[in-house]
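Sequence and structure are kept together here, with a separate record for every protein. A complete record is shown below as an example:
=====
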Amino acid sequence: DGGALCCLRLKPTVFDAVAVVRFWSYLPEHDLQLGDGAWFGESSAIFRLGFGYLPIDVLPAALDALSEVLTRTRDH
């Protein structure tokens, strides 16, 4: 019934403030739902990634989509 989660930080030397905004804007296109660090008193450069709520077989596709968003954000 429970899941696991971790908090990740977008590396500031790679993702400046504009890139962080871009990152959050790209997520809906990939149906990704992450917890914004601002929700729990941190910067939006930090996000909470949870898994275990949905079936485990969707995790690989979700991680691939997250990878795509990170690459697109970085390369923009």
Q: What stands out?
A: Residues 59-75 form the longest helix (17 residues). The chain has a mean pLDDT of 91. The radius of gyration is 12 Å.
